[in-house]
Sequence to fold (217 residues):
Amino acid sequence: MLRFVVRRLLLLVPILLGLSILVFVWIRALPGSPAQALLGERATPATIRQINHQYGLDKPIYVQYWQYLKETAQLKLGTSITSRQPVLTEIGQRFPATIELAAAAGFFSILIGIPLGFFAAKRHRTIFDHVSLMISLIGISVPIFFLALILKYIFAVQLGWLPTVGQISVLIDIPHPTNLYLVDALLAIIEGQHPSPLVLPTELIVRESSAPRPRDP
Fold:
C-alpha cells in the first residue's frame, strides 16, 4: 500500500510539470500580451515596456518559465492586480469558504445520498427505486449554476433563511478569527457574543416589524 501511494505521488511530478508547460505556453499563445491585458485602454508603448520589464516578460521564454517554476515552488504567487495584496493572502482568505462548501456537500451526500441508495437497492424495481433514480438523474443533469439560482430564489428570496449575497448577512457583525464562518458563529455563540445563527433571521425580522414607522399626517 505504501509503495502504491509513493508511486502515485512520484507520478504527480511529471504530470504537474507537463501541465505547467501547457498552461505557460497556452497563456503566451493568447492574442495580445499580459502587459496589454493588465493596462487595458491605458496601454502605451512606454507603459507596456515598463510592465514587461517589471514582470520579466522581456526575457527569453525559457528564462520566464524557469522563473515561473522557481517562484511557484517557493509559493511566491505574486500580487493581485485588483486588490494589490499577495495572491497567497487572497487564497488564504477565501480557501476556508471552499472547505466549508466541500464539507457541506459531503455532509448532504452522506446524509441523503447513502440512505437513498441503500433503500433504493433494498426496494429494487419499486416506485421508491424509480423515484429516487429520477431525482438522481435530474440532480446530475441540471446545470449547477441553474440549480444554484433556483435554490437561492427559494431559500434566500422566498423563505429568507439564507443571505442573498455572501456567506452571511451584512446586518450580522461577528468576529472571524478562523475565516470559517460556521466555526466563527459557533465560537461567537460559546463566547456569548451573538445568538445562534438560526435565530438571527427571525430576530432581524422581528426587529424590523416592531420598529416604529412614521405615520401619515
